[in-house]
Amino acid sequence: MPENATVTEVTDTTFPEVLGSDVPVLVEFWATWCGPCRMVGPVLAQLAGERAGKLAVRKINADENPETMRSYQVMSLPTMILFSGGEPVETIVGAFPKARIEERLDRALKAPSL
What we know:
InterPro entries: Thioredoxin, Thioredoxin-like_sf, Thioredoxin_CS, Thioredoxin_domain. With about 110 residues, the chain is of the alpha/beta class. Helix content is about 35%, strand content about 25%.
């Protein structure tokens, strides 16, 4: 895994960096009390390393950033939203194995733009 590939935190204030990214960004909405979020964390770290330069991975603490939670109507944790070109293109709710997350990401990124 490349050392420069990390899952970095964004906030309500810094979220525009996700929307302005040149590469697709997978954002995990999580909370410290969320057990399934702890299961997904290592999977997302692996993806960040394996797809460095092609996919950015960010996380946002749902409890500390209610504005972004409301904006994207996040009702359950963990929720992962894939942004491409500043738009949400795929939403994954719940903790899934790495292969299933990769399948959803690949399908969304290969889909033709509307």
